[in-house]
Design a protein that fits this description.
single chain; 404 residues; alpha/beta; Rossmann fold; 2 domains; eight-stranded mixed beta sheet; five-stranded parallel beta sheet; 15 helices; elongated; binds ligand PMT
Length: 404
């Protein structure tokens, strides 16, 4: 089972003999479906070459804070936002000491400060260094800040000594990484998510559509699976891989999406509408390719059903969550959709050139009742995890009110 499908792991490698294990770690993370980007400290490059890790990760390896080439491809702040998880393995005593004190003197230490994603460290050092009270205090401090420490293991060390300080084996690290995404906040619930664009045919070769990539909806589906829900995913045409544990239904048009949703809705506890559904379709689809003739050309469109509004209007609707894609007046428009479509919640995003649609990251403002919560810009996977937690809280509260 691919437990890390679509997950973005930023692997930090610091200087130490255990750096050779990061090669296997990258292979295993990728075998589980993760997208891995590697950041190496200068000392790490003495133990294993960036070229090796570049070949294994199939991505450029980042080594410098101010590197014109990699900064132009993906700047360091963008990299910090891109990550769903930052894993530093091996993490040397020196790296941890600098991180405890908030140093941002190289790329890896800067990223660890700049990311809003969870951070995990797999320490590797000589046993005396590990047992030293300075190191122990440093690890206690970073644990208290919410950073997860994996290991270390005990045993023979490269320096000839024996004791605690060996980096955990890559095979033992990967399950910790996969489990860190599991929340179980929606155990036992049945969730239906729509994602991606719809396509409305004009003639046999043309259609009307939009720039939705499906990433946001797929991330929501994955976060719901990790929250323990049974997930159905109704998806428009996209070029990304669906989580293998979702019941996937592929559709093309808004009408097909409507039919697929309505077929499943009676067995759904929570409905999340992340798809960018076409509001209109072509009144009469031409049987043959339309020929170029006059200077202007008119298409007659008819309104599609509003799937979300129809679900919310059912006699006994599921907990219903919409998305609002807005280019202006985000809060006012989203709150108006929340009320007019009678939704339990709505997640609003600003869309436009390189925003919301088809981008790697997003930012959401979530509205429910008279409340709202801002989810700052982060990877769509990170946002989806927080959104699912918010939905679970409100869904469970609504259910407990019903039973009292
Ligand atoms: O797919 P990505 O590239 O990752 O981009 C993500 C996204 C920007 C598409 C996503 O975050 C998003 O905002 N999805 C909703 C897009 C949208 O159609 O917004 P809207 O404000 O036009 O519609 C409001 C709500 O009504 C949405 O939940 C939509 O799914 C639903 N709707 C709209 C029209 C329709 N006919 N039926 C619907 O169910």
């Amino acid at each position: 089972m691919y437990r890390l499908t679509g997950k973005r792991i930023l692997l930090g490698v610091t200087g130490g003999i255990a750096a050779y294990k990061s090669a296997t770690l990258i292979r295993l993370l990728r075998q589980h479906g993760a997208d891995v980007r590697v950041v190496m400290t200068r000392n790490a490059c003495e133990f294993i070459t960036p070229l090796t890790l570049q070949a294994l990760s199939a991505q450029p390896v980042h080594t410098d804070l101010l590197d014109l080439e990699t900064e132009s491809a993906m700047g360091h702040i963008e990299l910090a936002r891109w990550a769903d998880l930052v894993l530093v393995a091996p993490a040397s005593a020196n790296f941890v000491a600098r991180h405890v004190n908030g140093f941002a003197e190289d790329l890896l230490s800067t990223l660890c400060l700049a990311t809003s994603a969870p951070v995990m460290l797999a320490p590797a050092m000589n046993q005396q260094m590990w047992l030293n009270s300075a190191t122990q205090e440093n690890f206690e401090k970073i644990k208290a800040r919410g950073i997860t420490i994996l290991g270390p293991a005990s045993g023979d060390q490269a320096c000839g000594e024996n004791g605690p300080g060996r980096m955990l084996e890559p095979e033992d690290i990967v399950p910790f990484v996969a489990d860190s995404f599991v929340t179980n906040v929606l155990s036992g619930s049945r969730l239906l998510v729509t994602a991606g664009p719809t396509r409305e045919a004009i003639d046999p070769v043309r259609y009307i559509s939009n720039r939705s990539s499906g990433r946001m909806g797929y991330a929501v589906a994955m976060a719901a699976i990790e929250a323990g829900a049974e997930v159905s995913l109704v998806s428009g045409p996209v070029n990304i891989t669906a989580p293998d544990r979702a019941n996937l239904v592929n559709v093309t048009t808004a009408m097909e999406m409507y039919d697929a949703v309505m077929q499943k809705i009676r067995d759904t506890d929570i409905f999340i509408s992340a798809a960018a559904v076409a509001d209109y379709s072509v009144e009469s689809i031409a049987a043959q390719k339309i020929k170029k003739s006059d200077d202007s050309f008119q298409l007659m469109l008819k309104k599609n059903p509003d799937i979300l509004a129809e679900v919310a209007a059912l006699h006994s609707p599921p907990f219903t969550v919409g998305f609002a894609a807005e280019t202006e007046n985000l809060a006012v428009n989203a709150q108006s959709k929340l009320r007019s479509k009678k939704l339990d919640m709505i997640a609003a995003n600003q869309v436009g050139e390189a925003l919301g649609f088809d981008s790697e990251t997003n930012a959401l403002t979530v509205f429910w009742g008279a409340e709202q919560k801002q989810l700052e810009r982060a990877s769509k996977n990170t946002l989806a995890k927080t959104l699912i937690k918010l939905i679970a809280d409100q869904y469970n509260e609504k259910n407990s009110n019903k039973t009292h």
